[in-house]
Amino acid sequence: YPLSIAFIVVNEFCERFSYYGMKAVLTLYFISFLHWDENLSTAIYHAFSGLSYFTPVFGAIIADSWLGKFKTIIYLSIIYVIGHVVKSVGAVPIVGVSKKCDIHIQALSMVGLGLIAFGTGGIKPCVAAFGGDQFAEEHTHERSKFFSIFYLSINAGSLISTFVTPVLRGEKCCVWDVQCFGDDCYALAFGVPAALMVLALVVFISGSWMYKKNPPQGNILVEVGKCIWYHLKKEESDSGLHHLKREGGWTAPPEKFYQNRLITEIKMVGRVLFLYIPLPMFWALFDQQGSRWTLQATRMNADFGGFNIKPDQMQTLNPLLILIMIPIFDLGIYPLIKKCKINFTPLRKMTVGMVLAAVAFAVAGIVEVKVNETASPEPISRECYIQVLNLADNQVNVILQGTNIFPDPFSPFQNDHSGTINIMSKRSTISSPGIFLKAHQDFPKGHTHTQCIFSEAVYTILNDLKKKPEQGMAAVRFINALTEDVNVTVGNEEFYAGKNYGVSKYATVDRGSKQASVKRKLTRPHILSGFNVGLLDFGAAYTVVITGTDNLEEVARVNRTEDIPANSIHITWQIPQYLLMTAGEVMFSITGLEFSYSQAPTSMKSVLQAGWLLTVAFGNLIVIIVAKAAIVNAIHFPSQWVEFFLFAALLFVVSIIFAIMAYFYIYVDPADVDEEDEKEKPPNYEDIALNPATKQSK
Predict the structure, then answer these.
(1) Which Pfam families does the annotation name (predicted)?
(2) Would you place residue 88 in the very low, low, confident or very high pLDDT band (cuts 50, 70, 90)?
(3) What pTM did the predictor assign?
(4) Are residues 139 and 225 in the same domain?
(5) Has residue 356 been placed in a domain?
(6) Are 101 and 203 members of one domain?
(7) 469 within some domain
(8) Which of 119, 257, 361, 391 has its CA 20 to 30 A from that of 33?
């Protein structure tokens, strides 16, 4: 291993720390600091991500055509650092407050993001290819190991930064609560990644004296354009750029000799790019770890014996498993397969990786089916959902005219979650010892209702909570049976419930055991002693009824019912799908990086790396199209698990297509092309090139 590899790997670790650390808090910066809405914040976030994977094309062209990889990395890293600095300055609280987050601050943020996208995208194909350049062609095994180490450094930087930067921003935790001028410190959260990018640049420059630096091969795009244009000209097709005649000596002009080689290189790159056509589908599934899988985690139980994890923190499983799996595959699985005399080629590895990703989504679909068992009711357009809550002192029987959805009597403070009717209005009959009530109730279709039964009346409440609380939160509301209005405080949320069975609105609170305090609106208001609400669990919704007091100072009787069941499937059931997806990534992504380098001619290594990265960009584009296209929204999948299985099936079909394409692919060694090129050169070629005056006599 060349010592120069250490500088390249450390540079990549710092750069990835910088990029992923900044992205970890970017959406919250848009929402909390710039006060954009969620839709605009999401759109800008994905636009930035997509741009970061489209700009590698420009970096590759600059590297292979003009500056070379070394200078391109240095110059674009400087632009990268400037972008971070601009982004950090735009997040300084004093600047933000003085300008009130006006158009100038937003423009500053967009300029910073644009520079970062151009910087990170520009150096992305160059660093990997530059690392591969440090190895001699005969050291292919060592070079393959380098790409594994290179990928390991990427995920190490990602893993650490996604934990660190939210703390620097000011995320409240048991130890730290960082603040700048009394607010969240986005300037520090962006400033530390900027410092890491400066460190990455310094480390890379420090190893410059030992790097192997291949010179640029000229303007590749111009040469390719000339070559294609030449062959399109019909009047010159007879001679052809690749027909070199040797009649009594080499009569073809020297420049056509080079164009002949260019044709060979274009064919090499074209064959590889053709193989890349199915690959975006893998990334379309892979990138949903941060969207669909995270949303799935919000509907699962994340309690680990007193320690709760956030749904989006499950994403850290991917880089963590990468760090574990890379040594397992390189030192265990691949050598074992080789000993079994199995020719496990790079394209076969990539095919298996795609299949594993498809299986991961199938497993996610199975988990989704189980998660849906605790889902809140979603009545269709011609239905409404009725929940009955018995607040009387005795059992009650409820009969809705023409239905038999409540066959059993309700005990006091018992509710029911299975009453779906498909008609707009019903006559209710409620009976129990001492109670016989009839009421004609209107139930607007497409909504969820709570029918509260008291000893003297029946009230129907239109629920303002239409689905499960998001982000693993819990929802709670209060019914006040006292004869005076009350304000109830739970954590930072305050609820108002009027007297004589007034109902507050639902509000979401963090999961946990909660205490509540109550203020009654008397002539001389005073605080009643707090009472225990109990455990408000992940994804559940509760109704707490304040039924009475023993004296003026205490709420003595409180009853609680569960309106929407809590998440019962534990979040650890997501681990198998993350294991499968990460194993697929190791076999697909790392192998693809090395394959892109090994099959590229010397003059186009960065260009082909950029082509590989473009598959990631198009994969993100597929997700955006699927999520936003009106025709897809009109299909209305009955449940998320259907979409998971659909994506799994699509990738499985694509993997079969890719396997067929890979079967007919013939591996090429660029070194053989160079060697053949040298053999075909005429002995006097250099003399002809140096002294055109002797060309005719020769």
Answers:
(1) PTR2
(2) confident
(3) 0.72
(4) no
(5) yes
(6) yes
(7) no
(8) 119
